[in-house]
């Protein structure tokens, strides 16, 4: 029988973890990796999420899961790929410990892609349980290469189905193209509302540009789900290794050329922006007379006009391009500038180039 | 037992493998540590030992997969394996099952070798190594040292190959250490960066994005600078005679210097300037769009303010 002192020590640690009190020792940080069989089955019994559609608010993704998902999404190129995530719940947070890819190439029209992969999933889960990964499947992820992180109509219906039968379940979307172009990970985690439920307030979601051919799909369904906050965690060994990795990594950072990598994508974005501009122009020309009628009634205009959105999009694309250009210019100065100082005997170039 | 490898094969290691192994180790450590504390709970399934008192964290074992092209071996991914501590062998059926699963998702990768944790190569490892030789005739062994020593500067990962050496008249296989490089795809680099430094995840303002981008480059340049300084000091010391001359090193430094400037052709300059101009053009366009948007707003507000009494439709719209 476990002694009362050890169980109270355990309870203290759990409480600390749930309240996110920063554990200063490594042991506390790694506690998150322990799969508590008893607490998990208790949570399954109680099902606190069935009463509140907005129950889960946060997602914590482990370093490993993020890396695996992003690499898999990128390896698909411009084809959507999907996979499953394993983890557990902790209060109102879903913890994603690991992810694995599924051997199905998704197209936006296949609702039940997961049915094909059930055998794979069962096999994978059983093998995982044998190697000290007893967590259950807690969600699915898929990629939207180049068109942003949101749930399409098919995705929403798939997720609603999942949330009926496989709770707790989470949907994660990754955009590998935007990740590479922007230099930061483009990821979103969502849960759908049950049919007919109206959210009490309009959640403020981060704005992102959506290509014209998908914007209808986005608009129709964007009220049926909400986004969760994503944070990341890593073990003490992970942080140690990643710190050391930087010693070898700086070369890659310096040598990366985001302009070259995302040339296609940028061209596509500009094209799309041009289409949107044309659409906005038509809209404005037709509304010119209409606006006089309504100008007296001060109708509330909470959404921005089409043109403001376009302006924001264009600034974003340009900013990314300028960042890429800055990298190129810096590299040119670093490695090419000795050309400019060939004949000078007097060391005036940047430090690394010239011997004192 | 381990000396330098001479096989001439270059190894490229992806960070995913490193994080994979580290995660496997942490999990197992967490499980065994906690199964020791609460002894009444059913012991969680694990592949290693199951001690009663908090045991030393067990070794983890697994397989590394990737591609070998000519003399370059690129290790992309890895997965866990079951180890039977009594017979000191890896569970073969499990390995084949897992390999099948991974082949479905990553059809181009095949088994390159195995990994384990620990501080140094052990005798028993040779048995495991041999058993993998029928899958891959020259498997590699990746060893991760999970001890966290804060003064360490190098990654605690070593890659070993086996070579046939004649010792005391008997040809024996011994482990030899090889060097490796870290290779990455752009997406991997960004996510590792993201997790390692926990950069601001959302857009923030343009200023913070710019700051983040430039900080990354700045730290990389700082590293480059410090490395070059080290070389510089070494060379100066050599010049003064404090350190014995090392011709091969001098040759390498000379070849490095000869590589600068990196590209010097006319064509490159042209292309570079073209790209520069393209970006400036984009900025110009964005500015234009911005101005148009603002102007449109001004016009709308003006219309609202001044055209209220012509709603009956006499006057045309103010353009």
Give the arrangement of secondary structure elements:
The complex is a heterodimer of chains A (356) and B (319).
Chain A: H1 4-18, H2 26-30, H3 37-46, E1 58-62, H4 63-75, E2 81-90, E3 93-105, H5 113-116, H6 118-130, E4 136-143, H7 153-165, E5 170-174, H8 176-182, E6 187-192, H9 212-221, E7 225-233, H10 236-255, H11 258-261, H12 263-295, H13 306-336
Parallel strand pairs in A: 1-3, 1-7, 4-5
Antiparallel strand pairs in A: 2-3, 2-4, 5-6, 6-7
Chain B: E1 3-4, E2 10-13, H1 15-37, E3 61-69, E4 72-80, E5 83-84, E6 89-90, H2 92-105, E7 110-117, H3 123-131, E8 140-144, E9 157-167, E10 170-178, E11 180-182, H4 186-197, H5 206-240, H6 247-258, H7 266-306
Parallel strand pairs in B: 1-10, 2-4, 2-11, 7-8
Antiparallel strand pairs in B: 3-4, 3-7, 5-6, 8-9, 9-10
């Amino acid at each position: 029988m476990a002694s009362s002192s050890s169980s109270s020590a355990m309870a203290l640690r759990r409480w600390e973890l749930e309240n996110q009190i920063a554990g200063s020792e490594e042991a506390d940080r790694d506690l998150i990796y322990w799969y508590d069989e008893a607490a998990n089955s208790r949570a399954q019994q109680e099902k606190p999420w069935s009463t509140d559609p907005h129950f889960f608010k946060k997602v914590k993704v482990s370093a490993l899961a993020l890396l695996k998902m992003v690499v898999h999404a990128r390896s698909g190129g411009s084809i959507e790929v999907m996979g499953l995530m394993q983890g557990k719940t902790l209060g109102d947070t879903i913890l994603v410990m690991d992810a694995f890819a599924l051997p199905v190439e998704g197209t936006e029209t296949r609702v039940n892609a997961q049915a094909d992969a059930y055998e794979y999933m069962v096999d994978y889960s059983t093998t995982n349980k044998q190697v000290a990964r007893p967590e259950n499947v807690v969600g699915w992820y898929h990629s939207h290469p180049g068109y942003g992180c949101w749930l399409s109509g098919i995705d929403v219906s798939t997720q609603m189905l999942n949330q009926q039968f496989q709770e707790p379940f989470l949907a994660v979307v990754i955009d590998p193209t935007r990740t590479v172009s922007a230099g930061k990970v483009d990821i979103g985690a969502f849960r759908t509302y049950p049919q007919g439920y109206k959210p009490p307030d309009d959640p403020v979601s981060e704005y992102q540009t959506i290509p014209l051919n998908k914007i209808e799909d986005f608009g129709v369904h964007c009220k049926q789900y909400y986004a969760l906050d994503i944070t990341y965690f890593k073990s003490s060994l992970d942080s140690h290794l990643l710190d050391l990795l930087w010693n070898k990594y700086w070369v890659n950072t310096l040598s990366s050329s985001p302009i070259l990598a995302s040339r296609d994508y940028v061209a596509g974005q500009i094209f799309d922006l041009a289409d949107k501009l044309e659409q906005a122009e038509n809209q404005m020309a037709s509304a010119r007379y209409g606006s006089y009628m309504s100008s007296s009634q001060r109708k509330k205009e909470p959404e921005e006009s089409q043109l403001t959105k376009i302006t924001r999009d264009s600034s974003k694309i340009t900013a990314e391009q300028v960042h890429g250009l800055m990298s190129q210019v810096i590299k040119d100065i670093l490695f090419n500038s000795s050309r400019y100082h060939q004949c000078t005997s007097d060391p005036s170039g940047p430090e690394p180039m010239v011997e004192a | 037992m381990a000396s330098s490898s001479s096989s001439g094969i270059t190894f490229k290691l992806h960070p995913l493998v490193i994080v994979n192994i580290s995660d496997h180790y942490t999990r197992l450590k967490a499980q065994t540590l906690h199964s020791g504390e609460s002894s009444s709970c059913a012991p969680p399934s694990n592949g290693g030992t199951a001690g009663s008192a908090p045991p030393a964290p067990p070794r983890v074992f697994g397989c590394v997969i990737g591609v070998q092209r000519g003399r370059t071996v690129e290790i992309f991914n890895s997965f866990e394996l079951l180890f039977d501590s009594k017979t000191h062998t890896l569970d073969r059926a499990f390995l084949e099952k897992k390999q099948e699963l991974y082949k479905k998702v990553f059809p181009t990768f095949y088994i390159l070798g195995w990994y384990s944790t620990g501080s140094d190569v052990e005798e028993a490892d040779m048995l495991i190594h041999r058993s993998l030789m029928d899958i891959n005739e020259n498997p590699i062994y990746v060893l991760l040292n999970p001890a966290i020593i804060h003064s360490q500067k190098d990654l605690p990962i070593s890659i070993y190959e086996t070579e046939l050496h004649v010792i005391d008249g008997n040809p024996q296989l011994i482990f030899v250490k090889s060097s490796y490089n870290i290779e990455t795809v752009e997406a991997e680099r960004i996510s590792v960066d993201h997790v390692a430094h926990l950069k601001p995840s959302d857009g923030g303002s343009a200023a913070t994005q710019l700051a983040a981008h430039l900080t990354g480059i700045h730290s990389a340049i700082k590293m480059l600078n410090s490395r070059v300084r080290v070389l510089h000091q070494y060379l100066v010391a050599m010049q003064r005679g404090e350190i014995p001359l090392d011709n091969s090193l001098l040759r390498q430094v000379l070849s490095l210097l000869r590589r600068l400037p990196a590209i010097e052709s006319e064509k490159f300059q042209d292309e570079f300037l073209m790209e520069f101009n393209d970006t400036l053009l984009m900025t110009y366009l964005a500015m234009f769009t911005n101005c148009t948007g603002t102007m449109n707003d001004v016009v709308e507000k003006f219309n609202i303010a001044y055209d209220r009494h012509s709603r009956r439709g006499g006057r045309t719209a103010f353009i």
